[in-house]
Amino acid sequence: FSNTGGFMGVSFAIPIDVAMNAVQQIKTKGYVERGMIGVYLQPVSPNTAKGLGMSRVEGALVASVMPDSPAAKAGIKPGDVIVAYDGKTINSVDDLSPMVG
């Protein structure tokens, strides 16, 4: 509350599809379950794409892999670039998390 009408603080937004998915899970399960493959990602820069011999700047660059994670068990290694998940194209690092859950 502000007597002057000003506001300084932190706010955030949740995409409606993420919120509705969480609501549905709470209704059916009583909790929200999220997917995890066990990687830390970073964007693919034009220089990185060029250095890796990629024809386009796309995908998500694997920075590190958690030990004993699904990614580690699948053989994913740091330096790999994830360009598709479940048959869907990964254009940027932001595309992967919503697909995993």
Automatic annotation (TrEMBL):
InterPro entries referenced in this protein's UniProt entry, alphabetically: PDZ, PDZ_6, PDZ_sf
Q: Where is the signal peptide?
A: none
- Coiled-coil positions: none
GO cellular component, alphabetical, reads: periplasmic space
Which Pfam families does the record cross-reference, listed alphabetically?
PDZ_6
Query: Looking at the keywords, is Protease present?
Result: yes
GO terms in the biological process aspect are:
proteolysis
Q: Which residues form the PDZ domain?
A: 38-97
Task: For this UniProt record, give its keywords in alphabetical order, as a comma-separated list.
Answer: Hydrolase, Protease
Q: Name one GO molecular function term.
A: serine-type peptidase activity
Record's Gene3D superfamilies? 2.30.42.10
Q: Which family does it belong to?
A: Belongs to the peptidase S1C family.
Q: What is this protein called?
A: Serine protease
